[in-house]
Amino acid sequence: MPVKISTALAVAASLVLTPVAAHATATAASATAKPNLRACYDGKCKLTLTKSVSFRVSSRFGITRLAIAFNSSTVKVRGTGAYVSSQAVLGRGSTGSVNGIGVRILSLSGSKAVLRLSPVR
Fold first, then answer.
1. Quick count: other Cβ atoms within 10 Å of Cβ 61?
2. Is the pLDDT of residue 27 over 50?
3. For a tag on the chain, would you pick the N or C end, based on fewer CB atoms within 10 A?
4. What's the pLDDT score for residue 115?
């Protein structure tokens, strides 16, 4: 009889703990994979990107949306708004700006780009 009870307890414990561990792993993976784009609205943030993104920025920059795409050698930053479009293509380790939003490439590879945005006005 004690063997059946311990087996039942082991099975019950694994059923209870498995969903929690799976949820914690999924949460950690999504937290590292998804940048906080809302933090960039004021033109000041650090981004770690694994794919192209587009997000809203304050209209004080003369644009309302910033789109960022990259490959292993360049980062393309495009700002758009009503009747305006501005673009910068930057190489590894370089800096530039799009309508008053400074862009600095901290690191760049084919699968990841780390950028720092800061207002220049």
1. 22
2. no
3. N
4. 96
Whether pTM > 0.85 for this model: the answer is no
Q: At 20, is the pLDDT very low, low, confident or very high (cuts 50, 70, 90)?
A: very low
Report helix, strand or coil for 17.
helix
Amino acid in position 46: K
**Tokens (6 digits) for 18:** 């498995």
Question: What DSSP designation does 64 have?
Answer: S
Q: In what order do the strands lie in the sheet with 45-49?
A: 45-49, 113-119, 101-108, 95-98
Distances (CA, A) of 80 to 3, 49, 59, 66, 88: 69, 20, 10, 7, 12
Cα separation values, 49 from 15, 33, 68, 81, 115, Å? 35, 8, 9, 23, 8
Q: What is the pLDDT of residues 44-78, one digit of tens each?
A: 999 999 999 999 999 999 999 999 999 999 999 99
Q: Name residue 56's beta-bridge partners.
A: 65
By residue count, the chain amounts to: 121
